[in-house]
Specification:
This protein has 255 residues and is an alpha/beta fold. Helices cover 36% and strands 21% of the residues. The chain has eight helices and nine strands. Strands 1, 2, 3, 4, 5, 6, 7, 8 and 9 form a nine-stranded mixed β-sheet that branches. Helix 1 runs antiparallel to helix 8 and helix 3 packs parallel to helix 4. The radius of gyration is 19 Å and the shape is elongated. It comes from Sanguibacter hominis ATCC BAA-789. This is Molybdate ABC transporter substrate-binding protein. Keywords: Metal-binding, Molybdenum, Signal. Belongs to the bacterial solute-binding protein ModA family.
């Protein structure tokens, strides 16, 4: 069993210290105050973005509404014309799909702002006795993971190919939050989630050195919505010291 109480405590201390600094001026001029932007963000960013969004609004006066889902679903929504000002994906390939298929929708070059790595999560007590990546190949193991077209699923498939260990998931989910929910509820013996997902979740974790070799890089881009300057201000804030600090405190890696 390997819990991360220290990581959670560190995140709490960091968030507290960042709140004390919220009065400082950050990216975004006073002329943008009162605008409201919509940010489409990968599900794995929900905890971090809620904190970053609060700090951003305090500093700039720009309101933010978040919509979380799997990166592939968000990209599809943007391509279908869903109104959004910022797209933040959990990998570069999904972002590139939007840039390639509809370059007129992306105002500026996407910016990388964090990385993440998969880890094995089990329900408390690890009833199936999972100790390694190789154990996930057991036909009797109820494994849950993301679908291959989702960044977390694509990462799992790359690790699977690199190791030669064949996985037999009983369920493939559209986003990592659904994978974690099934593990927490005891509906699976193990699940492949991001390291950042287990900071506050009541699960046991199993080290996965094989996963470290495959990192996903998160990217954000302003879209051709009604508030392009406010969208740029949000991304500037995201990659600023305060935004990066929140992300690192919650277990994301830097770029």
């Amino acid at each position: 069993m390997n819990r991360r109480p220290l990581a959670a405590a560190a995140a709490l201390v960091l968030v507290t210290s960042l709140t004390a600094c919220a009065g400082e001026r950050r990216p975004g001029g006073a002329e943008l105050a009162g605008e409201e932007i919509t940010v489409f963000a990968a599900a794995s960013l929900s905890i971090a973005f809620e904190e970053i969004g609060e700090q951003f609004t305090e500093s700039t006066g720009i309101g933010v509404t978040f919509s979380y889902a799997g990166s592939q679903d968000l990209a599809a929504q943007v391509l279908e014309g869903a109104p959004a000002d910022v797209l933040a994906t959990a990998d570069e390939l999904t972002m590139q799909r939007v840039v390639t298929e509809a370059p007129e929708l992306v105002v500026d070059e996407p910016r990388s702002f964090a990385t993440n790595t998969l880890i094995i999560a089990t329900p408390p007590g690890n009833r199936a006795g999972v100790t390694s990546w190789a154990d996930l190949a057991d036909d009797d193991l109820a494994l849950v993971m993301c679908a291959p077209e989702v960044p977390c699923g694509a990462s799992a498939k790359r690790v699977e190919a690199a190791t030669g260990v064949r996985l037999h998931p009983v369920s493939e989910e559209s986003n990592v939050s659904d994978v974690l929910a099934k593990v927490v509820a005891g509906e699976a013996d193990a699940g492949l989630v991001y390291e950042t997902d287990i900071v506050t979740a009541k699960v046991d974790i199993v080290p996965c050195p094989e996963c470290i070799e495959d990192k996903n890089t998160y990217q954000a881009a302003p879209l051709a919505g009604e508030h392009p300057e406010a969208a740029r201000a949000f991304i500037d804030f995201l990659v600023s010291e305060i935004g990066t600090g929140v992300l690192l405190g919650l277990g994301f890696g830097d770029t």
